[in-house]
Amino acid sequence: MIRTLLLWGLLAGLCAGVAAAGVGAIAGEPALERAIRFEQTMEPTGGHEHPAVVGRTTQRTVGLLLACGVYGASVGGLFALAFAAAYGRLWRAGPARTALGLAAAGFVVVYLVPFLKYPANPPAVGHADTIATRTSLYFVMVGISLLGALAAARLGRLAPPAWRARRAAITAGAFAVIVGLATAALPAVHEVPDGFASATLWEFRAASAAMHVVLWAVLGGVFALATRRVLVRQGALAPSAH
Description:
Layout: H1 2-42, H2 56-86, H3 95-117, H4 131-157, H5 167-185, H6 198-233
Helix pairs in contact: 1-2, 1-6, 2-3, 3-4, 3-6, 4-5
């Protein structure tokens, strides 16, 4: 059954990646184009000394679709494995509700929390010699968020029986404390150059957030429909169960 769930996770992730690419093409590309033009004005040669290996037309069409598709499928595969581990263990709910809840949790833990500390930046924001440091800090925040979520979930399960009704609040509170401490401890990154339009920056970040909202929503929705049918066919779930 895990193999079937994994295949559906990959397919759901691919669908989610394609949907996210559509959002990125519509909402993100205009801000990205303005950021690239600003970056070119900052370079002495106007940014034409070293032409891009892949043209912008390819980048914003095939490149965007391919990147989002691969990313979505990868996330979908991991999501399916997480569902297999969580279903019937973390909370008592049917497969559809478990998938949707896991997708919501994944969006918050994997994307939203790291994004709030280290939001996405378009070209021209940040220095080339600090990209390794900024990338490392971002993935450190992702790791802390994931480990914090696991630790908070474990703490919620260890709560005494009298506190069962409060387990969700205990888990959420523990997670908030962990990521709050990490956010305060990790260094901030402020590298927006003078003259860069704040509207472009926020539009780019809003588009990035919208892409991930769509990605996790489609992933959770498609996988919820698929996994319920899989469990019903294999006799692990009654057709009337949710």
